[in-house]
Amino acid sequence: MPVTAAGQAATITGTLCTPPGASTVQILVHGWSYARYYWDLPYEPDTYSYVRAANKRGYATLSIDRLGDGQSTHPLSAFDNFYADVSTVHQVITALRDGRLGTSFGKVIEVGHSLGGIVTMTEAGLYKDVDAIMPTGIAHSLNYVNVLSKIIADDYPSALDPKFTAAGLDPAYLTSYPGTRGGFYLGNATSTDPGAIAKDEQLKETGNLVELATLAAYNVLNVDRSLNIPVLAVVGQHDPFICGLLGPSCSDSQTLANFERPFYGPNATVVADVVPNTAHDLQLEKSAPESNATMLDFADKYVGAGDAMKDTAPGAAAPVPTPPNPAPSLAAKAVNALVVQAAVPAIALVQKASNVVPGLGDNQDPIPGMSAALATVGNLTDSLVGTFPEGLIAGS
Known about the structure:
By secondary structure, the chain is of the alpha/beta class. The protein is about 35% helix and about 15% strand. The chain is built from 12 helices and 12 strands.
């Protein structure tokens, strides 16, 4: 569907799966260097397809490629910022409710993984347009050292990767080095299927430095402080990018729920699930069926699928043509050149430093009082400045 991103025309591409009679839709938002395949891996779908599991429960699903990923528009990096990403997701949700995608849905659940989880929390907090959210592989603080040492250090400009050489992306678009996708998984024989990692490696996508830089203050400008809807936070017990150090303890579900609670409104229902024997990519680990069941049980309890037909057989997804990228103006190119010139050397310095930083922290060693302190700062900052910074960056 057509959207506006940071003042530029763009297109968001996705796959809408609708069981007969469905009145509730789940919009699925993927993370860094992924695309909508994260939610419907074309490998052992009875295990690794959240889409299939949700459809069987009677929920429609719209899995999208975020701005700058998959078959959606890849704008110049200066216009692929975090709040533009958030704005485009909001535009899609509005279209789902208005019936512009073929069916009008009365209820919307927003589900986001990792960076997509930050998009989900921020979108819901800013626009108050969904009935529940389920952020996965994310919390309101991260193990930042491990994010740098185990994700950013494993990325390089996508133009250097054989998969993306011909895509014409500017240097602020990154992708993972070949053979490094295993860092998102726990990796032992009981937790991880090597076939899932291999398929993930084949389908990998890009991430953008500008988006990464502009989301950095998501918890300092905490827009969720007035969000009063049901929330389910799902994290793998051994997620190195979320658990420990500056992030939450992932020792048990109640501890994670207690960490997240201060960031939401007083009338929000905040539930958490810590998934054993699982790392970051919850939907792609062997524990995915259990995670999916927990998420769908939560959706049933707090929102509901209505009178939709259950246990329907999966249909064949129609092929989706990739829309052309709009030609940027000379002014847009000039702005982008300045942004990229600043961003690329900065990430090079971060990568150089992170190469000598070991992964730190385990799943049970957060700094005492971190949650309360972050929530106090984030809630106060948002109450003082409102949504002006987000709107300015998004170009809306």
